[in-house]
Structure formats: C-alpha cells, structure tokens
Amino acid sequence: MRIEIWADVVCGWAHIGKRRLEKALASWEGEPVEVVWRPYQIDPSAPARAVPMERMLRDPMVDEALRTCSPGLSPTENRARVAEIAAAEGLGPQWGSGWRAGTLEAHRLIALAYEKGGAELQDQVVDRVLRAHFVDFLDISDLGVLTDIATDAGLAEEAGYTTAPDPARQTLPGADLVRELLLTGKAKGVRTSPTIVAGNLALEGAQSPETIREFLEDASRRTPRRLPAEVTRLRHAESLLDLRDPLGALTLLRPLLQEHGDDRGVRLLAARAYFASAQLNRARTALESLVTEVPDDSYARHLLGRTLRRQGRHEEAASHLTLAAAMTPDYATG
C-alpha cells in the first residue's frame, strides 16, 4: 500500500506528523507500506531570499493571518505550544523555525530523491531538510544548505548543484515534476499540511498514532479501482479547470496532447482550458477541428460560437450558436 504525505517542509505539524506516522507504522502488521512525500506549499508567497522569523512576526498583517490559524492564541503562544508538542514527540527541546523560507527548491530535492533512490532515500532527505529547518535553524531556501544535504545523499550531481547552469536548459531537474505534483495535489483536493492519502482516503493534520493506524487499516480494506495513468491525469486536469485554474489544467494536459493528441476528450478539454484562459486563437483552432470532425457535437459548436463572439466575429458566432441551440435547447440561453 502506498501512503502519500502531502506536506510542506516549513510546516511544524508536518514534522510532528512524520514522527507520529513512524510510530503508527512501528506496530503495523498489515500489508507492506511505501511512504512517499509529495509537495504542498503553505506559504507560496514566501520571498526568494529567506526572512528571519522574528522580523516577520513583527509584521501586523502576518500577525493577523497567523491568528486566524490559531484562534485564541497569539503567534508567539501558538509557536510555543507547537514546540512543546514537538518536544513531547522526541523532536528535541530546541525546536522551531528561524526563517520564513521558500520551499520550492527543497521540494525539488525531495522529489528527485524519490525518483533516483526510492522511498528510503527520500525519507532520509526529508529528515535532513526538516532537521535543518526546525532543529538547526538553517535557511532551507539557501542553496548551500540544500547542496550539503544533497551531497550527503549522493544527489548533488543529479540535482544540478555541482555543475554550472546550462543556458539551454530552462529548468533544473525535477522542477517540472514538482510543478505538476503541486497541481495534482490541488486537483485531488489537498488543502492542508500534512495530509495523508492512502487509496481514495485522506487524513488531514498530524493525528495521533492510534488515529493514523485506524486510518491505514480502513484504507487497506478498500481496494481502489486502478485507472490508467492517462485517465487519472485527464481527470486531474478537469478538476483544475473546475477549480478555475485553466493554466494548471493545460500544464497537466501537455504530455497527453503530445502522446494522445488525436483523442477527442483530451482535445476538447484543452479547448475549454484555452477558452477559459483567454487563449482564443488556440481555442478556435481546436474547436473548429472538433466541429469539422463531428458536426453534431452541440457543446463543441456552442463553445466555438462563444469563442468567435469574444473575438468580435459575431456573424460566424451566430451561426454556430444557433445550430448548437437547435440541437441542445439549453444552449439557447448561453
């Protein structure tokens, strides 16, 4: 059984949740388990250069935001409370975050660790990153800190830390993977760190070992239907479109368009995403092809009419909108 932990490495509850999951698995007698860490960002607006936490906490806007996360407690009181819980879990008496740090680069290293060495190596890297942030009070957005971790894990070269940047390469290894994983988490409905996912079940927060074990027992009794990877990706892209993230949907659709560009479902979803992101020329081209192939596809024809109307091509739009309404009367009010 695969367990996915969707979490951010600057989230104190993720560090606590990792320890509690380890305790739950220590007495686990069910099927073999693989634990995989997936990226989530609790602070996507964190600056590229980390800011000392003490300075950040003096910001009135940050203070107000943090109070909504811990009703009845000031940010300082909440940090002390979480530190006490962490100490009780054996994470060390000197525990806390010293920096407001961006985590994309750390997530990239963690994703690469799984790709190159599997769950065991990834777990070692996650441990090192969490310890660096919460115990050693290091800036985990600093490439020097991450290079040390990558070197110890034998990943420095794979992560691109030992060679000069290649001007022809637009992204470092693993960057696109992290971007896709963040979108996949959003499509799945992940909304907090940590979230444990097993099969079709999700458990939010750093729950007790007993609760985690009960969750895993429940998940192991349910055998989810395994869908082809292409179908899962298509569904995630559709979820992102429903969440009004058409550019994210197009990111997930990119490999499907390359490998299954003749699939009508893929092309129609891409056309919808083009329309929703105001890429009207691309939407029109895709929809004209779909309508030519299947003239009685009322939805494709209706969307083509709306696209043409937004482009100011009202006469062309009217013919398509009229035909679509004749085939599907509900479109007469669209």
UniProtKB/TrEMBL annotation:
Keywords: Isomerase. GO terms for molecular function: isomerase activity; oxidoreductase activity. Residues 3-216 form the DSBA-like thioredoxin domain. The keyword rRNA-binding does not apply. It comes from the Bacteria. SUPFAM superfamilies: Thioredoxin-like (SSF52833), TPR-like (SSF48452). The keyword Phosphoprotein does not apply. InterPro entries: DSBA-like_thioredoxin_dom, Thioredoxin-like_sf, TPR-like_helical_dom_sf. This is Predicted dithiol-disulfide isomerase, DsbA family. It comes from Nonomuraea solani. The lineage of its organism: Bacteria, Bacillati, Actinomycetota, Actinomycetes, Streptosporangiales.
